[in-house]
Specification:
3-stranded antiparallel β-sheet, 8 strands, alpha/beta, globular
């Protein structure tokens, strides 16, 4: 079985092609919020290096968030277009689960303004604390989430894509028409509209 994995939810763009349980090619690099211009060249390079064509893919695994609004949309658009046009099953994956896949524990993404996207997983990638949008050091979440010595600017997660694929290999695929981003919070435009609605009442 040949799988395509796409994660563009953070500045660290990951595109991988898996062939019969082994990684045929992986691109894993910090693209500093330049995902929109790099996605297609990286994808083309991945297929070239792996020696496959898009129509060879049996299933697509795509990270749906949380994370960067723009980054998530870029990866989802590519994955959904491929899934629809080539009739390939598509399976959604959590960005926090991917980040925790290397050794379990807490995965954190800076959501700004003192908030984080956070999730805590065990070694088998079962969630101990579900993916959430929480205030940093929130007293209710703190027993389940470790922030100790965490530096958003320097920490690069040690991910294990094969572990994620194995866990979700038999998940039921979803329609590309109904697959949506998992932002976990309102977009800035939605927040402004909500604020406007409250103030106008």
């Amino acid at each position: 079985m040949k799988y395509l994995f796409i994660d563009s939810a953070t500045t660290n763009l990951v595109v991988a092609i898996i062939n019969d349980g082994k990684i045929a090619y992986i691109y894993d690099n910090n693209d500093n919020h330049d995902t929109s211009s790099k996605m297609m060249p990286v994808l083309a390079l991945a297929f070239d290096k792996a020696g496959f064509k898009p129509q060879d893919i049996d299933k697509i695994f795509v990270v749906t968030g949380p994370g960067s609004f723009t980054g998530i949309r870029v990866g989802l658009t590519v994955a959904k277009t491929m899934a629809y046009s080539l009739n390939i099953p598509i399976v959604p994956i959590s960005s926090l689960e991917v980040m925790a896949s290397g050794n379990g524990g807490t995965a954190l993404i800076n959501a700004r303004r003192g908030y984080v996207f956070a999730g805590t997983y065990d070694n088998d990638l079962n969630d101990i604390y579900p993916d959430s949008y929480v205030l940093m050091n929130d007293s209710l979440a703190k027993p389940y989430i470790s922030y100790d010595n965490f530096d958003f600017e320097t920490v690069k997660p040690n991910i294990d894509i094969l572990k994620v694929i194995i866990k979700h290999e038999n998940d039921k695929d979803v329609s590309p028409h109904t697959l949506k981003p998992n932002y976990l919070k309102l977009t800035e435009a939605e927040e402004k509209l909500k604020k406007h609605d409250r103030e106008s009442k």
